[in-house]
Amino acid sequence: MAKCNTSSYAVIYELAFDNDNPSSVLDKLEKIAKAIYNDCLNECLKRYHKLIHDKNYQKILKVYKTSNNKKELSKQLNDIALSYGYSEYDMHKYIKKPYEYFNKKLGSHECQKIATRAYKAVEKLRYHQADKVNFKNKYDSFSIEGKSSTSKLHYCDDISISYGNYKFKLKVKRNDIYSQQALLDIVKYVRIYPQIIRNKRRWFAQLILKGTPPSKNRQYGDNFKVQGIDIGTSTIAVVSSNEAKLMELAPNCKENEHKIKVFSRKLERSRRANNPGNYNKDETIAKGKHCWYKSKNYLKNQAKLKDEYRKLSVKRKQAHEMLANQIIANSTDIRVEEMNFKGLQKRSRKTTINKNGKINSKKRYGKTIRNRAPSMFLTIIDRKLKYKNLTLKKVDTFKIKASQYNPIDGTYKKKQLKDRLIELDEGTIVQRDLLSAYIIAHTNDDLETINTVSCYDDFDTFKNLQDNEIQRLKDSNQLSWYIS
């Protein structure tokens, strides 16, 4: 089936059940879907291991890394993969066996989607984007989706989801105008998934709809004013010709982050108390396979921890959506540096020793990025701009060097990460993140060079805006570490 390239958006509705259409039907389908996924993932892994142990494949792969003719070598590698039946369409063929084994209770389109999902999981191993693949256990939630409006799982005009002989009504609130207007658009396909909310298992349907979302009085600024964004792991600096803001990403999530720490420590203590034989004398986990006993109290705290993660996710996305609307309302020409957040999440490779002779921790920004999700915020801005056929512009980080540039004398100077306030000239002190955002806003249209003339001319205006912003942060006692 050809992939549809038209614009689309998703809206989520909760499913309603009755005696004729109980939730147990979907629970059984989810178990079948997980079994099919695990079977398909296992088969895909077998074919992948045969492929990577092929001597001819290994030789070509070594040459590929240093070769200039990568197109031809890539074709040869794919031909070897096809000889082992390692491809998405080969997995679609394989899925027929489990599809028939379960008496076709899942539709063919739904099974093909599961096969694609398993194949993509193994592909991450092939391209070193993941270290391992995870099989689904009985506690994991699993989504089921079709391919089109003609799949076995599809949307009906009577505001329900049909699956075989069963129909599940969608819960649409009377005062939810957005959800009502969305149902007027064409539904491409449907995805259903369970979610545990306050210890209750509820099912939701995600409708993938054609077109753009209904208007929510979203305001878009003009395209003549440029906004520069310097985004960090937990903060964001936004600078334009009339505004300079330094804000915290998702500040309303702090309470949930604290609760997650509390429940995580509780679970760790409970796990160690219930399984003393699985640990060494130095309190590290012993090598080998272990049977982990989970007490009733442990399972309760585990459910609470999972619910806190859910709340954190909802609050974080809501905060990102609101902040993105504020930025877009000011201007639609938004520029940001390219950032590798996955690299910041990884542990440091270097082993360093502090003044006391102790080894420094190799942990970096994994938890902060998980809690504040800066990459997701940029994705939300880009999505909202695409509704107006615009995109988020990404400047070249290594060519611009925004944090090193001095707009007064046009020189570059490296700075340490701990230096948040920078002295550009005698008596001229600026905040590092705001300065970076200011320089990004004064890049040329090629996104690789700085407009040095306008950057110098507008500096006095930026300095006044920045001083007002720092005073605002001091008065409100916010982000003290970033302005001191």
Short key terms for the protein model shown above:
alpha+beta, 484 residues, globular, 17% strand, 16 helices, 5-stranded mixed beta sheet, 7-stranded antiparallel beta sheet
Give a written overview of the molecule.
This protein is α+β, with helices and mostly antiparallel strands. It is built from 16 helices and 14 strands. The chain has a seven-stranded antiparallel β-sheet with strand order 2-6-7-1-5-4-3. A five-stranded mixed β-sheet has the order 10-9-8-11-12. Strand 13 and strand 14 form a beta hairpin. The longest helix has 35 residues. The chain is globular, with a radius of gyration of 27 Å. The mean pLDDT is 91.
Rg from C-alpha positions?
27 Å
Strand order of the largest sheet: 2-6-7-1-5-4-3
Structural class: alpha+beta
Oligomeric state, counting identical vs distinct chains: single chain
Order of helices and strands: EHHHHHHEEEEHEEEEEHHEHHHEHEEHHH
Proportion in β-strands: 15-25%
Summarize the SSE layout with pairings.
Elements: E1 8-16, H1 23-52, H2 55-66, H3 70-83, H4 88-94, H5 96-101, H6 108-126, E2 144-145, E3 153-156, E4 160-163, E5 166-171, H7 177-182, E6 187-197, E7 200-210, E8 226-231, E9 235-239, E10 244-248, H8 254-274, H9 296-330, E11 333-337, H10 341-345, H11 366-372, H12 374-386, E12 393-395, H13 397-400, E13 421-425, E14 428-431, H14 432-441, H15 452-457, H16 459-476
Parallel strand pairs: 8-11, 11-12
Antiparallel strand pairs: 1-5, 1-7, 2-6, 3-4, 4-5, 6-7, 8-9, 9-10, 13-14
